[in-house]
Write a structure and sequence with these properties.
The structure is a single chain. By secondary structure, the protein is of the alpha/beta class. The chain folds into three domains: about 80 residues, Orthogonal Bundle (Arc Repressor Mutant, subunit A); about 100 residues, D-Maltodextrin-Binding Protein, domain 2 (3-Layer(aba) Sandwich), CATH 3.40.190.10; about 90 residues, 3-Layer(aba) Sandwich (D-Maltodextrin-Binding Protein, domain 2), CATH 3.40.190.290. The chain contains ten helices and ten strands. The strands form two sheets. An eight-stranded mixed beta sheet has the order 4-3-5-10-6-9-7-8, with helices on both faces. Strands 1-2 form a two-stranded antiparallel ribbon. Strand 7, helix 7 and strand 8 form a beta-alpha-beta unit. Helix 1 crosses helix 2. The chain is elongated, with a radius of gyration of 23 Å. The termini are far apart.
């Protein structure tokens, strides 16, 4: 069985975009040419890779297996190319970083600045998203490292990823100055189903509070501003909560762990190791 890296790339993009038209536009080829390439790959493999559901192309069970292989193969090829480039021309290449909002606001900027000063020839690509999405992107070889809110260590479902604890922080009850220690009826919280919200909900239930959530945001700066304006009570990371004195900062409601995730089966990457080391240095100075 023989197939090309181009066919694997086509397969990956069709899965990502969902339709042949969108994938062809992404690849800058004609739709008939893309359809023909996918059909040729199916012929060589002897399996149907996609089935139509409305206008979308959806992977079959066989297609999912082949696509996972395609993603890993293409990523490994890029890794090899980068390693050869580093050997031939010195330190270089790229690093794709995923991070939650909090990490982008107050943890990683200093570490990334130090990383850029140490390795100016490495191109950085940064994605900001929620923890579950970033974890999935890491598993799918879309990013190289992810800074996320850790799940319960006892519930980690797979050995595909390695976790390094970067920061453990308090999540504090914050009220408008006028309310002092009395929470408002209106609350501004992290989004439902987010890992941080799950921790907060447990803490709120333990205090027998019944908040009316009027605003949800994964950006703690937005939540803090609503508190400062006297519009809502919130639960904020300690470093954001205590930025200045225009809100009332109260008791700890929960604690969360921010970890760096990387793939367990990838070769040692000095760029990833360096960024983790710098992030740990920043945390130790806080």
């Amino acid at each position: 069985m023989e197939f090309s890296s181009k066919q694997l790339l086509y397969l990956e993009i069709v899965d990502k975009k969902g339709t042949l038209a969108a994938a062809a536009n992404e690849l800058q080829i004609t739709q008939p040419a893309l359809s023909s390439a996918i059909s040729e790959l199916e012929r060589k493999i002897g399996l149907q890779l996609f089935e139509k559901k409305g206008r979308r192309k959806v992977l079959t069970a066989s297609g999912q297996l082949v696509t996972e292989f395609a993603k890993e193969t293409l990523y490994r090829a890029r890794e090899l190319s980068e390693l050869l480039s580093i050997n031939n021309r010195g330190r270089g290449g790229s690093l794709s970083i995923g991070m939650i909002d909090a990490a982008s606001l107050y943890l990683l900027p200093t570490a990334i600045e130090a990383f850029k000063n140490e390795t100016p020839d490495i191109k950085l690509y940064i994605t900001v998203n929620d923890s579950d999405t970033l974890t999935e992107q890491l598993e799918n070889f879309e990013i190289d490292i992810a800074f996320v809110v850790s799940k319960d260590e006892n519930r980690l479902p797979h050995s595909k990823l390695i976790s390094t604890l970067i920061l453990e922080e308090s999540l504090l009850l914050c009220n408008p100055i006028a309310n002092k220690e009395t929470p408002m009826k209106e609350w501004a919280l992290y989004p439902d189903k987010s890992r941080t919200r799950a921790l907060i909900d447990e803490g709120i239930q333990a205090l027998a509070l019944e908040p009316n959530t009027i605003v949800q945001s994964s950006n703690p700066q937005i939540l803090r501003q609503l508190v400062a304006l006297g519009l809502a009570t919130s639960i904020l990371p300690e470093q954001v909560a205590k930025e200045n004195n225009n809100i009332h900062v109260g008791r700890e409601i929960a604690r969360r762990r921010i970890t760096a995730l990387r793939r367990a089966n990838s070769p040692f990457d000095p760029k990833v190791a360096s960024l983790i080391s710098l992030a740990l240095q920043v945390y130790n100075k806080i």
